[in-house]
């Protein structure tokens, strides 16, 4: 069940591969209820991207980009998106 989340941080392209970053909320384990962000191409064991950040680390990543970083809405999704689906979800 993917659900849009209005309190999530802005989404920017993955810094490793340029594809779309998505946000999820952990539903189990010690981080239950915590938000995380990962590249849609995240799968380092199979040659995919390694971008995966908990919310605080993702916020630091955004801050490091400065005010000129383009939000995802300004890039061409047709070239970067892997698969379909919404922009948020739960895990």
Automatic annotation (TrEMBL):
Which keywords accompany this UniProt record? Metal-binding, Zinc, Zinc-finger
On the tree of life, the source organism's domain of life is Eukaryota
Family matches, as Pfam families = Zn_ribbon_GRF (PF06839)
Looking at the keywords, is Metal-binding present?
yes
GO function term, MF aspect, one = zinc ion binding
Keyword Cell inner membrane assigned to the entry: answer is no
Report domain GRF-type positions: 14-58
Q: What is this protein called?
A: GRF-type domain-containing protein
